[in-house]
Amino acid sequence: MTRGPEAALALSDQFRALSQGRCRMDLGAPMPLTRLAGLFTRLVLSYGTAADSLTAEAKNPNGADWPAIDGEFAGLHDALAETLSTMSEQAGQ
């Protein structure tokens, strides 16, 4: 991954678009699986948090705190993994 303020800002734009529902996922629509609905909501909020962190770090005059950004990515990865695992479990039932 290219690291730098421009890369962080570009990625934050993509994450913000996902968190704002531009991925055409209607979180307001009823879901038959309450747990899955909660996981999707958490995942979308995680993208928003990651976008905010990337923007803040990209604009930091002292330079980005890449270990902090890596921590945000780890949290985002965990949320995505849990969502996909639950989807897989539900599909198998």
Task: Outline the structure in words.
The structure is a single chain. With about 90 residues, this protein is mainly alpha-helical. The protein has one domain. Helices cover about 70% and strands about 0% of the residues. It contains three helices and no strands. Helix 2 packs antiparallel against helix 3 (about 65-90). The chain is elongated, with a radius of gyration of 15 Å.
- The backbone outline, from C-alpha atoms, is elongated
Sequence of secondary-structure elements: HHH
Number of domains as seen in the coordinates? 1
Look at the helices and sheets and give the structural class: mainly alpha
**Mean pLDDT figure:** 81
- Strand share of the residues? under 5%
Contiguous runs where pLDDT drops below 50 for at least 5 residues = none
What is the end-to-end distance? 38 Å
Count of DSSP-assigned helices: 3
Rg (C-alpha, Å): 15 Å
How many beta-strand elements? 0
